[in-house]
Amino acid sequence: GRPTRLIFRMLVHHGRKGERKGFREKDFAALMDAAHQQLGGPLVLVWDNYTHHVDAAMRELIEGRSWLTVFRFPSYTPDLNPAEGVWAHLKNSLGNLAPCSLDELAALARTRLKRMQYQPGLLDGFIAETGIIP
Q: What does pTM read for this prediction?
């Protein structure tokens, strides 16, 4: 089938007073809802034990979405998480660059992440390196 591309928004924290530092429960819920709408079917989500992934508010949001099945990684198991390969690949690609600002670094990261979306073999490799799919 045709590869599906999901649109995401990157948050950049500049350290300004009152600035959001990251995703919260409502942001995760909006992301899941958008993915469900774009893909048009049930979703399976595999999550680590990040605080906002396991708190009561997130459990309530998950329970309200019958089309969503969530599996959790055991407590510290980065070797099972394909996202670790994504971040390692991204960091490696940014290693010899000298961006002049946080916004420039964010733009470079965004570009490289977008490029990864169009490399299914690379993405399959991140999953294969975990050994969770035979």
A: 0.68
